[in-house]
Design brief:
Blueprint: H1 2-10, H2 18-21, H3 28-33, E1 40-45, E2 52-53, E3 78-80, E4 91-93, E5 96-98, E6 107-110, E7 113-119, E8 121-126, H4 128-136, H5 141-153, H6 166-171, E9 181-192, E10 206-213, H7 218-221, E11 227-233, H8 244-259, E12 262-264, E13 273-283, H9 286-293, H10 325-330
Parallel strand pairs: 9-13
Antiparallel strand pairs: 1-2, 1-8, 3-7, 4-5, 6-7, 8-11, 9-10, 10-11, 12-13
Length: 331
């Protein structure tokens, strides 16, 4: 429509000139120049234990084991479909990867028979490294972080923000190189009903994993456009305290790398500065935060997920002999 209006304004003799031809016909150019798109990663997710697998080398059945003595999960993580195409993958059968012959898009050939498979559920995640690099380069964000830190440094007798707490000062009390930046983040993990809060009807739950930067001023840190959606846990159910680790494993691995520091080119430091990522706190209701952190639920009686001692008997516990990690895992 915009191209047609410009052609009418320029006249018929300019209808095919370079001006109208240089105008983009979709939003991809705007998204590219303003960096509005993020790289989303898709993983095959087991609907029972929420184990994650790469799409290209995913097994047919889930191989997760809660412990060495437990049986495999064994849940089928793919569905056959004639309607929804999916990229060609490799299927693992009996511990061996079978080479597949691609036929059409979404089709694979196993034992001479074409199949069309789609994941039962998919886990979608976003790279924290990419998102932090985008956040620091948003115009004005770097100045807001520095100005808020300077303001808090002058209010030592008045506590107005979490970054003035003693725990915060202990975490960020380091001797990094000049120009380095320590960023503290809060983690939010919880489930919601995408169909709304309906009392009647089928109830489904979808999980969200989100981060917010605590270095920003309070009026900016919780804004929607300053929130990192690090992962979406698929519906219709949610993982328990044990299977939640399967979903958080990718996130923990990336956090360990970011904690060592990454070099990012920023408006104030065109040659790059070292940025460190610190997970400071969990936010959310008591059910979700206890599940993520590994603490017992508000209604639980067993304070440990591996023994049968009630939480009111903790005072009777005594320290036993030290065991090697392999002995603990094998028990």
């Amino acid at each position: 429509m915009i191209v047609h209006i410009i052609q009418l304004v320029l006249g018929q003799k300019y209808s095919n000139n370079s001006v109208s031809e240089s105008i983009p016909h979709d939003l991809q150019t705007i998204e590219k120049h303003f960096k509005l798109t993020f790289l989303m990663e898709h993983y095959v997710c087991c609907p029972t234990c929420y184990s994650l697998y790469d799409v290209e080398v995913s097994p047919v059945e889930c191989h997760f084991k809660a412990s060495c003595k437990d049986a495999l999960c064994g849940t089928d993580i793919f569905l056959q479909s004639r309607l929804k195409p999916f990229p060609c993958i490799k299927l693992e059968t009996k511990g061996k990867f079978v080479p597949l012959i691609p036929r059409k898009q979404g089709q694979i050939c196993l034992s001479g028979q074409p199949h069309l498979l789609i994941p039962y559920t998919s886990f979608i995640s976003q790279s924290l490294h990419t998102w932090i690099e985008w956040l620091i380069n948003v115009p004005g964000i770097e100045n807001e972080i520095d100005e808020w830190a300077s303001l808090l440094s002058g209010k030592r007798n008045i506590i107005i923000d979490v970054s003035q707490a003693n725990v915060w000062k202990k975490i960020f009390n380091n001797d990094w190189s000049p120009g380095s930046l320590d960023l503290g983040f809060c983690l939010f993990v919880d489930g919601f009903n995408p169909r709304g809060n309906q009392i009647s009807g089928k109830q489904v739950l979808m999980g969200i994993i989100a981060f917010n930067c605590l270095n920003l001023p309070p009026w900016l840190r919780l804004q929607q456009y300053h929130t990192c959606i690090a992962g979406l846990i698929p519906a219709p159910n949610q993982p328990n305290m044990l299977t939640k680790n399967n979903v958080l494993q990718l996130l923990v691995d990336e956090l360990l790398k970011l904690n060592e520091g990454i070099k990012i080119i920023t408006p104030k430091y065109p040659h790059g500065r070292k940025v460190f990522f610190w997970l400071v706190s969990l936010i959310g209701d008591i059910v979700a935060t206890h599940k993520v952190s590994g603490f017992m639920s508000h209604s639980a009686r067993k304070f440990c997920s591996w023994c049968n001692i009630n939480h009111d008997e903790q005072g009777k516990c005594k320290s036993g002999n030290l065991h090697h990690v392999n002995q603990v895992l094998a028990s």
